[in-house]
Amino acid sequence: MVQLLADRADVDVVAMTRRKLPAEALPPGVECAVADYADPPALRAALKGVDTLVLVSSDGPDARVLLHHRNVVAAVVAERVGHVAALSSVDADSASPFCYAVVNRLTEDLLLASGVPCSFARASLYIEFFRGWLTQARSTGLLRLPAADGRVSLVARDDVARALAALAVGGPTGRHHDITGPESADLAGIASTAAEVWRTPVAYVDIPADTYCAETAATGLDPWWLYAFSSLFASVREQRWDQVRDDCAQLTGRLPRTLRDVLSERA
Ligand SMILES: NC(=O)c1ccc[n+]([C@@H]2O[C@H](COP(=O)([O-])OP(=O)(O)OC[C@H]3O[C@@H](n4cnc5c(N)ncnc54)[C@H](OP(=O)(O)O)[C@@H]3O)[C@@H](O)[C@H]2O)c1
C-alpha cells in the first residue's frame, strides 16, 4: 500500500507503523510515524496535518479490534482528517455469524456517524489468506473444511491494495465498494483449481462444524483463531462471500487476478 501510494507524484505519504523503521526500509520520500491503534495520543500525533487516512483494519480478538478502530475514529475527528479510505469486508453485517463481519460493520457505522468523509473497500477473502488451507491440503490431498456448498469470490491481496489506494487518492465516495475476485467458486472448485495448478490431487471434503473444531483444536491453534475461523465458515455456508462485482476493475483500471493466476506464480 505504501509503495503504491509512494509511486504517485501527486501525494506525500506518511507510513504509520508500530515501530520506527530505518529510512532505507521505506520508499524514497516516505515519512514514518510511529503509533499503535491502542495508543490514542500517539494516533493524534501521527494524524496531525494528514488529509487522508488509509485505514488498514486491525487484527486479533474482535473486542480489541473494535477498540482500536474507535481510537482511530476519535483521533481522525480530533485532528480533522478530511477523508478516511477504510478497509472493510464484503461480509460487513452485524447479523453475520462471522466475528469480523460484525466488527467491520460497526466500524463503518462509527465512521459514518462521525461525519468524516469516507470511502470503504469491502474486500472478499484474500487468496493469500485462503492459501494457508490449500497448502495444508497440498500435502494431505484433502481440503477438509466446514463450508458446505458455500461459494467464495477469492481476491488477490494486492488487488485489494490497489483498489484501496485508488479510493484514497480519489475524493470521498461516501459508500462502500465491493472488491472481489473475478469469479466465485465453491470449495470443490477451489480445490480442483489448486489440483490443476499444482498437478497433485486436492479434493474438498465438507465436514461438520463440530468436527472442524475438534480437528483444529487438536492442532493446538490458539482458541481465538479457532473461533474466528469457525465463525468465518458459518458465514461462508450462508453464501455471504459469493458475490462478484466489477468495482475493483473500475477503481484500478485492470481486471483482478484469478486464483489460478496467483497460485501459478508460486506453483
Ligand atoms: N479479507 C481477508 O481475507 C483477510 C484475511 C486476514 C486479515 N484481514 C484483515 O485485513 C487486514 C490487513 O491484512 P494484511 O494481510 O494486509 O495485514 P498486514 O500486511 O499484516 O498489514 C497490517 C497493517 O496493519 C498495521 N497494524 C496492525 N495492528 C496494528 C496496531 N495495533 N496499531 C497500528 N497498526 C497496526 C500493521 O502495522 P505494522 O507495520 O506496525 O505491523 C500493518 O501495517 C488485517 O489486519 C485484517 O483486519 C483480511
Automatic annotation (TrEMBL):
> Which Gene3D superfamilies is this protein grouped with?
NAD(P)-binding Rossmann-like Domain, UDP-galactose 4-epimerase, domain 1
Query: What is the native source organism of this protein?
Result: Streptomyces ambofaciens
UniProt protein name: NAD(P)-binding domain-containing protein
Top-level taxon of origin: Bacteria
Q: What is the lineage of its organism?
A: Bacteria, Bacillati, Actinomycetota, Actinomycetes, Kitasatosporales
- NAD(P)-binding domain residues are 2-167
Record's InterPro entries?
A: NAD(P)-bd_dom, NAD(P)-bd_dom_sf, NmrA-type_oxidoreductase
